[in-house]
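pls design
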């Protein structure tokens, strides 16, 4: 039987089970026939194993208690097993085991027994178990030593041992970092003064403040209803961070975009690149409405601006466009990796998160299941993967999502209206809902307009920022602006809290060319 096998605890456990089979169905106790006799290590007793298996089967058939008669009736038809029971005087054994198992100490005997079984399994797999039980030592002393440890202690000991070896030879996973608190702290403090933590500016300068700018390794998510300008907002933000020059209609001159000159990749799945995406970029840069461009109604002066906008895009090699209707996570990663390697992109605009057959097929295959996949599960996996890609390739990712029917209520503008479930936003650094303003909202804020000097221009869009990981401002700030969907440029007016009370937030303008 061996020193490691705790025969006394095995007897007590069988006695408790004979008296009350509910121990077998209690999820807290993990018992199986190999615990009583392991055919590989020969640790244990075949006699005890047969009794346990018999008790288990009788319990499954409805037995609440087990006696000698029940065991005889069940086992006598199995000649080999029955002979082993008879050789060990099983009737007397069952009677004595039931008699001694009368108190409430099952847990004590269970833990002692399972610790020995666990150590036997580690020993079989080549681990040195002498830290817990020295097989060459005095058995009484070793069992006393083992009393000082729990099952969890033993498992953690070997887990930590393997973890240390893994780190020593393979290193940590790509996304795992360790350090002592305060390590290189003074250097980091100085770096904040030299390079303050602030990403690039979005088209919305209030949003830049609330989200802390467009930073690399982060995921940002803007949501909206159908035809609410999600794609145009994404393209406007991409132009804002990428192009080196834009036309200022107020000054009637071209100006340097000190927030620009950053390489970016647009990955879309619905809009045609030549006749939709590219013209929208021209519209932003030249400040010419996109409808005038696509309908051929631009003036001669506007044509000159558009020609220059096209030259800026083409010559500076800063913006790259991909149309990928049948995207999945693998294809997205390949596209980002390729552009990172070839062109050194730092920002990705993914327009936008939706379900398609390629994504669903990939999800089902990766799960190795023929069971149908729920849409919210797939979109959640997509959002997680986008965050992972942002970190892996050191890029900032801005994406868009659709919303559900609850968006019709202007008071419901947070993660709960995301089509695909609120957990989609868990991995995002910043999340917002951008929608055309409702009449109810206009009435709630009309008293603020004269004070802000916008008598002739009323806000037509509200962007509700429901998540801002690095913000010191309250949740669900509402940004009111006049958004020109034709040029994707915004004239921002003011910000309120979720109850439509104005709050003082400064606009953040980033003046930096990398």
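designed seq:
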């Amino acid at each position: 039987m061996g020193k490691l096998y705790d025969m006394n605890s095995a007897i007590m456990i069988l006695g408790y089970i004979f008296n009350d089979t509910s121990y077998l169905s209690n999820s807290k106790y993990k018992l199986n026939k190999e615990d009583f006799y392991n055919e590989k290590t020969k640790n244990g007793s075949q006699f005890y194993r047969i009794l346990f298996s018999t008790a288990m089967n009788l319990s499954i058939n409805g037995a609440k208690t087990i006696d000698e008669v029940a065991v005889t009736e069940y086992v006598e038809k199995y000649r080999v097993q029955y002979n082993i029971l008879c050789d060990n005087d099983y009737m007397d054994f069952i009677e004595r085991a039931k008699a001694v198992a009368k108190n409430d100490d099952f847990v004590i005997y269970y833990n002692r027994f399972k610790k020995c079984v666990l150590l036997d399994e580690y020993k079989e797999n080549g681990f040195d178990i002498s830290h817990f039980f020295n097989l060459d030592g005095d058995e009484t002393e070793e069992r006393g030593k083992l009393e000082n440890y729990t099952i969890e202690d033993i498992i953690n000991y070997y887990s930590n041992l393997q973890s240390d070896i893994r780190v020593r030879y393979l290193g940590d996973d790509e996304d795992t970092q360790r350090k002592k608190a305060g390590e290189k702290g003074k250097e980091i403090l100085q770096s904040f003064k030299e390079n303050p933590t602030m990403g690039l500016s979005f088209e919305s300068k209030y949003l830049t403040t609330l989200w802390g700018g467009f930073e690399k390794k982060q995921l940002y998510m803007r949501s909206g209803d159908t035809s609410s300008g999600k794609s145009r907002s994404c393209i406007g933000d991409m132009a804002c961070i990428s192009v080196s020059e834009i036309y200022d209609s107020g000054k009637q001159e071209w100006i340097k975009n000190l927030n620009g000159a950053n390489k970016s990749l647009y990955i879309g799945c619905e809009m045609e690149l030549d006749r939709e995406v590219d013209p929208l970029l021209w519209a932003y840069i030249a400040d010419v409405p996109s409808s005038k461009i696509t309908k051929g109604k631009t003036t001669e002066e506007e044509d000159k601006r558009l020609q220059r906008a096209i030259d800026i895009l083409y010559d500076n090699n800063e913006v790259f466009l991909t149309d990928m209707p049948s995207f999945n996570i693998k294809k997205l990663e390949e596209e980002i990796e390729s552009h990172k390697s070839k062109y050194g992109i730092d920002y990705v605009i993914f327009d936008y998160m939706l379900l398609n057959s390629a994504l669903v097929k990939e999800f089902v295959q990766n799960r190795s299941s023929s069971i149908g996949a729920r849409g919210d599960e797939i979109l959640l996996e997509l959002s997680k993967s986008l965050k992972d890609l942002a970190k892996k390739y050191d890029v900032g990712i801005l994406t868009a999502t659709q919303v559900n029917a609850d968006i019709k209520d202007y008071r419901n503008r947070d993660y709960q209206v995301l089509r695909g479930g609120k957990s989609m936003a868990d991995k995002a650094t910043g999340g917002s809902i951008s929608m055309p303003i409702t009449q109810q909202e206009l009435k709630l804020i009309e008293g603020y307009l004269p004070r802000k000097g916008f008598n002739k221009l009323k806000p037509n869009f509200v962007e509700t920022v429901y998540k801002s990981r690095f913000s010191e401002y309250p949740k669900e700030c509402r940004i009111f602006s006049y958004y020109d969907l034709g040029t994707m440029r915004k004239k921002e007016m003011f910000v309120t809290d979720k109850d439509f009370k104005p709050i003082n937030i400064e606009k953040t303008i980033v003046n930096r060319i990398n």
